[in-house]
Amino acid sequence: MAWTGRFSDFDNVSHNVQSYDQRAKYPRNDVLKNAAVTKLEDLHPGVTNPTVAGIILTKDTPKCIQSKKNPGTERYLLSFVLRDAPSYFVNVTCWGAEHGIKDIAAKFAISDIVQLTNVQVQPKTYDGYEDKFKPSTPMSFNITFSENHSNIDRYIGPDDDRFRRLQNVPIKANNDYYILEDVIAHGQSLSGEHINLLAVVKKVGPVKDITTKTGKKTKRCELKLMDETCSSFALILWESDMIDIVQSWVPLDTVLFIADVRVSYDDFRSTMVSTADSKTIFTVNPDTLEAHSLYQFAHSQMIEDEDGTAGQSDPPLESITDVYTVSQLIDMKIERTDVWKPAVYGVVFAYLSKFDVDGDTSRVLRYRCNTECSNGILNAISSTVDNTQPSVEYSVTVSWSDYTGTIEYCHLDGDVAQQLIGIKAEEFAQISFQRKTQVKWTHLLEKRKMYFKMSRSVGETGKVFLRVLSCKSVDGKELQHNLQ
Asked: Per-residue DSSP letters for 325-371?
């Protein structure tokens, strides 16, 4: 799977934000060299000036508040979430003057790996504020960073790779999410709730400059998400850091596990939408079975623009009568997408020239998951996870050939593939390699009548997909007649 992620370049950045006097008191190199890093799981309130390290999962923009200790003065704060193990992550709040806090915010980004020295470990407060405005964490404490007493810098140590891998591990059990169809179906009963989603980025909208009613200037970006049950679902972003990151997300290539996203009913659109807020944490391209399956699903579908035929059913096979050669299909695939019809249906008489069902099983089968699926790397985190198996179906990439050429990357899915292979998908993974090879050569180079649908994807790439609607045996007479 070709995941795309965001990695930061630390090499040319210095992150010590303290004044000259403070740097003399806490020299950066000595701190990094001598400080022993304490794991989050070993911390508790009362631990004195520990050093912690990990990856930044999410980060807010700096905020200004009026000081309670010194009325008439302002203090600045910056909040982020630090993680050092799959089950351990904590809210960090940095306090200081405007310049220092904004400097930290500018020098560190989501997915950066940092080390914090001389921080305070404070018990969580249960006044309702934290539950409402901060990400939910498994720790009984929060960490406070003081500009005057603490240091922050990039992490240099043996756990760098381990920390970096955490960016692909969801913070919730991998079965703990709603499918989009359920969100829409439950409608107003979920409105205002924070839930988890697993979805593919379908489209990244433009960034818009917004001025609020109070005169505050901010940015807004709307994404379209999709999964196996819904072709389009809105996700609204307001946080500048997150908006900058999503510009690198590739439609149909980027899978998201979104923890604690707020869903609400949009009266204007008459449907549900989602909004990322201060509680939301994104895991980009999570390394789970469900995410890999969703990625395969997205690449096996032909997805039209919203003003096209997305969501409409295919016509009956008997109404598809236009016959094409393989070379004509190839020409259509390389045409400019802006001259495309929403979808092209037709028939081609050809040979199955690539049918690698005896290869990697992940290239033959895909898994469809709902909220009961649980296979994946996070099962070890919670003993309460139900071990219900996901449903399985075929998803095979094949090639077709005739006397005019060969067309590759055609998608043979679901019931169409199962009817051709003659073995139920859930049984296929259990049969021997020899049996799979026998299946392969039973159908390879056999004459077929293929009904197809060809369409382009959303996004700037306009990638073209060809999906097989039906694959039937054909006798020599019909084949000869149509190849003349």
From this structure: -HHHHHHHHTS-GGG--S-EEEEEEEEEEE--TTS-GGGTEEEE--T
